[in-house]
Amino acid sequence: xxxxxxxxxxxxxxxxxxxxxxxxxxxxxxxxxxxxxxxxxxxxxxxxxxxxxxxxxxxxxxxxxxxxxxxxxxxxxxxxxxxxxxxxxxxxxxxxxxxxxxxxxxxxxxxxxxxxxxxxxxxxxxxxxxxxxxxxxxxxxxxxxxxxxxxxxxxxxxxxxxxxxxxxxxxxxxxxxxxxxxxxxxxxxxxxxxxxxxxxxxxxxxxxxxxxxxxxxxxxxxxxxxxxxxxxxxxxxxxxxxxxxxxxxxxxxxxxxxxxxxxxxxxxxxxxxxxxxxxxxxxxxxxxxxxxxxxxxxxxxxxxxxxxxxxxxxxxxxxxxxxxxxxxxxxxxxxxxxxxxxxxxxx
Length: 347
Description:
Distance between the termini: 50 Å
CATH superfamily of the largest domain: Dihydrodipicolinate Reductase, domain 2
Radius of gyration: 20 Å
Largest sheet: 9 strands, mixed
Structural class: alpha/beta
Strand content: 25-35%
CATH class of the largest domain: Alpha Beta
Order of helices and strands: EHEHEHEHEHEHEHHHEEEEEEEHHE
Strand order of the largest sheet: 14-13-12-11-7-10-9-8-15
Number of domains: 2
């Protein structure tokens, strides 16, 4: 039997999340990071030394000229995504890019068009839907025991000091909807289908930030059959029970309800009663316990993306074309918040 091809890749960006991104890649068979790029070479060198990556660069063009690669993984800030995607696509290289794909929907569409024209895959690293408790809840909904969902609530509310680890977030003109909303609105699509209409309100609880840190988005999904409310906040307020970074979900359906409760407890209630099952994240030695459910999901997301690169018959869940639908909801949410009107998502 022929040995399966081993994919060689370079990672662009060596910031806060890069360490966990690189650690997660090491859990995936058939891939090898052979080079790191960062505009500050010392940061790339430190990460390369920690993970045994053989070469580092502070010039992206030179890296692409020197190395024989099968794909590029872009983990830089959103403002630079377009530049690096275009560089890789211009050399015929498949690209995996962090969310959000771009700072505007128009720029995201240009990025997608560039890769389509070049004939190379463009995949988005959207790992939130790959969290084990959320995947299990999706299975519960698909099995149909609770019937057809008519209302749901998705909560990601936290007083966690997120700005301590990522201070650049304070300076974003648009914050929680682009940073966290891309994840949560993608989960809403994953669980309940495409949105028909949307209404959003935003607030700023922190006085020392530029963007919004609180948002409420109400979606009409699944042909109007399901109303989904997404509550997002990094308000810094004191909560009786801090669940960061867990996403809590409650679903009402025609024959019962399902809940993703704190501590990864998935509860299903019908006329027969309630049963509960704890679905914790996978554990890895490199995972920060404060981010466990998020960081461990990176591995499963990687596996799906790599499977798509190795097998043309497999379409990864988070292609750029699919992610454009999520990004569209993000910017429609901003439009709704500014106009104080509901938005028709089908236009």
